[in-house]
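Appendix B. Raw example, untouched.
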Amino acid sequence: MSASSTSTTAGAREHARAQEGAVAEAQPTLPAARYRTPPTGVQPADLLWAERVAGGNYTHKVLARGGSLRLTDVDGDACASVLIFNADQPWERLNIADTAKVQWQVYPGPGYLLLSDQARVLAAVVDDTSGRHDTIFGTSALLRNAERYGDGTVHSASPAGRELFTVAAAKHGLGRRDIGPNINFFKGVTIDSAGQPEFTGSAAAGSSVTLLIEMPAIVLIANTAHPLDPRIDYSCGKLDVVAWRGRPTSPADPLWSRSPEGRRAYTNTLDYLDARGLA
């Protein structure tokens, strides 16, 4: 039997170098400026992040204030579970309970603010062609996936969202205790008149949602099957993630005046950023 081409250091090196330029179905575009289909009106030089995330996978990035983040449900079967942390002080993070309570609304859409546990605006939804989202049920857990699909570990065929979040968080010095309730994009849940959840699934392939980042942010994304998905088999489609440079909002922006609660949250945010020299 002949030796494998990778059985020696030289052979392994040549094999590895031969992969340069190969394009996988799901991977980041590096540098992001090489991304082939930037959003309308966005110059390639302004792109910060361009990545396709396969189902059952995760991604993460630190984004500056004023950046835009667009998520796209490629096949109509993605479920983008998202957590956001203050990049400078990550003990401040997305608080889904306050996000819904302060705005009197559990169903996200354009103008919806993602609030931190310090009553500040981490990000705002500025565009949404899906309308199928969930702020109530969070992502899947290891034991639940093990019961439903036979496994829920990171490298299995049915990884749980919390397990993927834990790996992504570790890239930023965060641990399992830092993983709180998240928001889900592209898999909808409504509550009926009897208080029971109704899983509404996806809107359509190609649906997207765009967030405006209002504070320097650590963004964690797990693309996994929604915990209420009724299908027997684990199923999750591809997710496209694109971010680009931009400008943060100011008091003249309509987002600031949509509601008294939102105006207060933006005032809190500006006060924090001013004091830290970030505004």
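End of appendix B.
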